[in-house]
Amino acid sequence: MNTRKTLVLLFSIVFLLSMSALIGCEEAEEIIEEEPEEEVDEPEEEAVEEEPLEDISIDIIVGFGAGGSNDLTARYMADHLSAYGITANVVNMPGGMSTEAAYHVAGQDPDANMFFWGHTGPLLFEPAAGDRGYTIDYFEPVAVLAAPTFCIGARPGAPWGDDFEALVEYIKDNPGEVTFGGQGEGNVRHYAVEQILPPDELDYTFVGLEGGADVAMNLQGEHVDVGHLSLAAASPLVADGELWAVVNTNPLTERVDLMPEVPNVSEYGIPEGQEPHPIGLWAVTGTDPALIERLTDAIKEIAENPALQESYKEMGVVAHYLGPDEAWEFYMNVNENVVPDYMEWLEAYIAEGN
């Protein structure tokens, strides 16, 4: 055999043996897979529970006697405040169209937890009419909740029925024949009546009676032809056919759920006849802001409570929430746009010898 061929053959054999050895080593090599890292559970953060608010007790002073709309609206609210850890003691202090109650609360220390349940009458109109020992600046609003509704009612069998325009036409056609029964004379309710039925345009006789109940009795007995009373007082009489309800004067809504068929005076183009006295809770100026906020938040939720809404509905009261800023804005609007006109009316009324 040729020496050169022999070397090539030997080299080929060595190469093949080397490649076989390498392949065998690769096949024998153990493939080590990396094990996944174990997940370490992070400790969950414990939820921080808010500590319940401390129970508190407050006094709510109402400037009218027990059983009326001012009193009952406060008591229904007080019942619901208990669910918020607030015990509200309603105290009746009638006198001076609620000015005695307002004066009493205005003189309290801000830490006394005493509040006034009031409306524009004692807070704006009465202080404007004379020195009552306080002004609205002695108070700050917590929230408005209730808007009572008053109405103009007519005696049973009245020829104009429950039609306001027919009433106006009847007075025009029969000057001096119609007698109107009002809740007192020379006050803001008398003023509201004259915005609806201006005596310089319509000739009728106004008689000041002792209050809504007296007005209702005189209408039933046909001693007066028309009168001003609460819608709640009028409702059962209307149902029994003993009274017509002609218009309502609610300032926050046109139709009232208690008697939705009774139109608002604004529907006849007389918005000035709406009686602006929604009732709210008022704190002495300087009362703890945290306490005011707590009461405000509670009343906001209470206003949406169906049970309270139903209780108010039965009295012809609208459950209508206004927060502190909205309430103050509403009252200041009345103070700027209604009170000056009322004062002009009152001065003229006094000048006439009334």
Describe the structure.
By secondary structure, this protein is α/β, with parallel strands linked by helices. The chain has 2 domains: 56-148 and 277-349, D-Maltodextrin-Binding Protein, domain 2, CATH 3.40.190.150; 150-274, Periplasmic binding protein-like II (D-Maltodextrin-Binding Protein, domain 2). The protein contains 12 helices and 11 strands. The protein has helices spanning 3-28, 69-81, 99-106, 120-129, 164-173, 188-196, 212-220, 231-239, 289-302, 306-313, 324-337, 339-351, and strands spanning 56-62, 86-92, 114-118, 139-147, 150-154, 179-183, 205-209, 226-230, 244-248, 279-284, 318-322. The chain has a 6-stranded mixed β-sheet with strand order 2-1-3-10-4-11, sandwiched between helices. It has a 5-stranded mixed β-sheet with strand order 7-6-8-5-9, sandwiched between helices. Helix 2 links the parallel strand 1 (56-62) and strand 2. It is globular and about 70 Å long.
Distance between the termini: 156 Å
User: What pattern of helices and strands is seen along the backbone?
Assistant: HEHEHEHEEHEHEHEHEEHHEHH
Determine the CATH superfamily of the largest domain: Bordetella uptake gene, domain 1
Low-confidence stretches: 1-33
As for the number of domains, it is 2
Output the CATH topology of the largest domain.
Answer: D-Maltodextrin-Binding Protein, domain 2
